[in-house]
Every structure is written in C-alpha cells, then in structure tokens.
Amino acid sequence: MKKVKFIIRADASNAIGAGHIMRTLALAQSLKKYSSIQFVCSEITTGLIKLLNKENVCLDVLPSTPGSEEDLNKTIEIAKIKQVDWIILDGYHFNDSYITELKKNGLKVLLFDDFANLDYYCADIILNRGTFVNEEMYTNIETYSQLLIGPQFTTLRKEFLNWQGVKPAIKTTPTNVLISMGGADPNNVTLSIIRMLEKVNDYNREIKVLLGPANNHKDRINASLTKSKLDLHIVEDDEDMPSLLNWADFAITAGGTTLFEMAYMGLPSIVIQIAENQKSAKILAERYQTCLYLGGDTTITQHDFEEALQIINDLNVRKKMAINGQNLIDGRGNERILEKLNIKMSDNLE
After folding, report:
1. Residue 7, CB-side half-sphere exposure with 13 Å CA sphere
2. Quick one: 161-328 is in which CATH superfamily?
3. How many Å apart are CA 100 and CA 289, to the nearest integer?
4. Where are the domains of the chain?
5. Binding site for substrate, residues?
6. For residue range 17-39, what is the model confidence (pLDDT) as tens digits?
C-alpha cells in the first residue's frame, strides 16, 4: 500500500499562539501510521520546534510572510518536490485565493476552519470543531467539499487518547487549581489571574501555573512568585498534560484548544476568552454546561472572578461539568476524520 503524503501548513508565535500547531499535530500523530507527514511553517517557536523534533516529524521553515504569495509558491514547490497528496491548512492568513491555487496545482486540501467567513470554499474537507457554526453558514462552497462540523471532530494528541474512558475523581472540596492561558498568552492574562487570586481572602489552594511553549512572560511571572502569598508552582511545557489535568480539581483557562482537552478529561473550568477565535467557550458554558464562562479578559471584575470561584466550589456544579464535558468530547475525533480521509484517499492506495 502506497503511503499517502501530507504537508501540514500551520504557524505559531507569541501573537497567534500555539493552537494551530497543536491541533494539527494531534491529527498528524494519528496519520503517521500509514502516511508521510511534514510540517511547513513560516513562524514557529523554539519550544514547538523541539516538540516536532521529539515527534520525529520533518519541518521546513519558510523565509516568507505567512499567507503571502511567496509563502504559497514555496509551499507548492515543496509539495511538488515531495510529491505530496494532501495539504492540511490551519491559520487565518490562508484565504480562498491561497486555497484555490493549491487546488489548481493538483493538491487535495483539508482546511481547519473556525469562523466560516471565507468568501469561497474549495477545500476537499473543511473541519470546524466549533460549537457556534452550522452547514448553512457555508454559503459559497464547492459541491465536492465535505463539511466536518462540531466538537465531535475535536482532534486530541496521543497522550490524551491513552486516558479514554477514565472518569475524574471529584472532591467534595477542591484543593488543586490549574491556571492555563494557552500556548502564548500574549497579554499575560496569567499574571492578572494570579493578582486577582491574591486579593481573595485566605485562598489556601495549591495552584499550578502552566506556561505554554510560546509564552514570552515567563521571567515576569516567575519574579511575581517570590512576592506572592499564594502556594504557586510554575509548570513549563508539561510533557504529561493529561496527568496535570487529572491532578487539578478545576482550572482557570483560556477558551482555546486546551478547553476541549479539559472537557475530554472531565475537568471543570472557569473560562476567560483571550482571543476572537474562542467564541466556542461561551456556548460550551451556556449550551453544554462543560465550564463557567466569565467573558473577555479585559472586562472581568474582581467581584465576577470571586463569584465564579464560589460557584465552582460547589460539588454538584463540578460533577455536572465533568459529565457533560466527557459526553461532548468522546476522544473519537481523530478516528472520524481519518474515516473521511480514507474515503478521499482510496484512489491513492495500491
């Protein structure tokens, strides 16, 4: 059987975060069994380069602006040299013209999409795990394009799949708190949360602060710990993320990829939206009740924050969040996507 060849074109930086790389890496791990995978990036952090090296995934770094004509031409050039079958795209700088040119060059395209806001869709597969989108939002789409919509298509890395079916232990009183504001946290919301916790009277929980691979505020956050009255511990680029989530009784988190991982693990959470692409967080809270949505990072008051802490202290609230999260994200997202790709790949199998 011929190995199908993939290029994953995605980027990461302090400004855009690490989510585009992390969710495509999850799919890459599942594809590696019977396909050839290569990442192509215009922007990527040192921490993520190390992660891809550890995964034994090839990486080409382009000397071009993400989404530019030079970026497009270099990506097509690499695809032709490597005789690639599929391009997996994840990033907001890949517009309909970029995708159209890939298709004109004989490439199949799987597009990770979040907003359903392109003028024209011609990708072979359009994957949107969001909770606020539906098929009707894709108005100008090719007849051959397949839509994979909803949280049932959430991709999960292999370390999470090893925890499939494990139910969390919900304590009567939460003692372990995790702060995780994504791979980059460009506005240093992590430090703002620490300062709000310091204002809470007698807050005697053990708190672990996870700093992602694209976080540029590590020195400032570490410096704040020496003056803090809280029981704080820094965790950097944790290699066993599922165990960390399993340790926590609840999390204070951003609304990106990690929020879906927390739902899968049955971890209750207070969510602070730090980016426009985190709209799903509000619906996960209101419709699916997997978390408690506080709002955007610039609008939260100390009163709102402390009220959220009181709510999530309730045992029944956390039990309900845990059950709802694991019912929503069942760990079969990778499998469902591969099933669709297998149908698309059938002409390439020998």
Report:
1. 26
2. Glycogen Phosphorylase B; (3.40.50.2000)
3. 39
4. 4-156+331-348, 161-328
5. 157, 261
6. 899 999 999 999 999 888 999 99
Length of the chain: 350
Same fold for the pair 4-156+331-348 and 161-328: yes
pLDDT for position 173 = 97
**Low-confidence spans in the chain with pLDDT less than 70:** 1, 343-350
Query: What pLDDT was estimated at residue 114?
Result: 94
Q: 4-156+331-348 in CATH: which number? A: 3.40.50.11190
Q: Which residues are marked as active site?
A: 20
* pLDDT recorded at residue 1: 58
